[in-house]
């Protein structure tokens, strides 16, 4: 890609890929935290634009298929990538030296496995809770269900992280980024995500990854 524009952010220069833009509707904002966090860690600035449901898409970003309007869309000079997970993978692979997709072929497979697990076990319930709260309806029962999913996921994660600092390998990957974003959303929505007394290894992971993500976001 051609990187023609530089933007100063803190002590880092962010490289803005020529004509890379992120389009999304406000009802998909819950999916974007991991995209923005991945972009920051990769030092890639993205021009963002909200396209509300029912509004026409910009002529520069006509969705390639009917389903694309339901997902965030990353427009590049060579085409489109749609879906938050796919965009995160695309951004991570654009900076392969960071190894955010894994340092080895085996790790890449493990990262993909955790991303799929997170989508089913954590991100889905959090998205439902966010949608319920956004609708203005009483979301108490949804919060209870979400807490149940989080508690079950926490047991799995705590055991996996017993002797690990990261989900895969010994460095940050998009699996950690996605988990961090999902748990932060759940906490913001009132879910009990940081029960350190019951999940000490997960709590240690949270502390480690939070520092890494904050450092990347403020660098």
UniProtKB/TrEMBL annotation:
Naming one, the record's GO cellular component terms include: cytoplasm
The domain of life for this entry's organism is: Eukaryota
Q: Which GO terms describe its biological process?
A: translational elongation
Pfam families from the xrefs? GST_C
Question: Which first-to-last residue range defines the signal peptide?
Answer: none
Instruction: Tell me the ranges covered by the GST C-terminal domain, including all copies.
Output: 104-219
Q: Which SUPFAM superfamilies would you find in this protein's record? A: GST C-terminal domain-like
- Tell me which InterPro entries the record gives: EF-GSTs, Glutathione-S-Trfase_C-like, Glutathione-S-Trfase_C_sf, GST_C
User: PROSITE patterns from the xrefs?
Assistant: GST_CTER
Query: Which PANTHER family is this protein grouped with?
Result: ELONGATION FACTOR 1-GAMMA
Q: What is this protein called?
A: GST C-terminal domain-containing protein
Organism expressing this protein natively: Noctiluca scintillans (Sea sparkle)
């Amino acid at each position: 890609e051609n990187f023609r524009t530089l933007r100063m952010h803190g002590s880092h220069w962010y490289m803005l890929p020529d004509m890379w833009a992120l389009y999304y509707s406000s009802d998909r904002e819950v999916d974007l935290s991991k995209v923005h966090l991945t972009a920051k860690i990769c030092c890639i600035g993205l021009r963002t634009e909200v396209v509300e449901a029912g509004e026409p898409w910009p002529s520069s970003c006509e969705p390639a298929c009917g389903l694309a309007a339901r997902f965030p869309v990353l427009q590049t000079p060579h085409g489109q990538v749609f879906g938050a997970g796919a965009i995160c993978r695309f951004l991570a692979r654009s900076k392969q030296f960071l190894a955010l997709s894994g340092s080895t072929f085996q790790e890449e497979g493990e990262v993909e496995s955790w991303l799929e697990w997170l989508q089913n076990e954590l991100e889905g319930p959090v998205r439902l809770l966010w949608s319920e709260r956004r609708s203005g309806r009483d979301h108490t029962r949804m919060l209870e269900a979400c807490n149940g999913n989080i508690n079950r996921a926490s047991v799995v994660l705590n055991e996996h992280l017993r002797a690990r600092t990261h989900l895969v390998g010994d460095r940050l990957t998009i699996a950690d980024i996605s988990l961090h974003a999902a748990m932060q959303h759940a906490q913001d929505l009132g879910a009990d995500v940081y029960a350190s007394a019951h999940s000490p290894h997960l709590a240690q992971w949270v502390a480690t990854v939070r520092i890494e993500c904050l450092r990347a976001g403020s660098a």
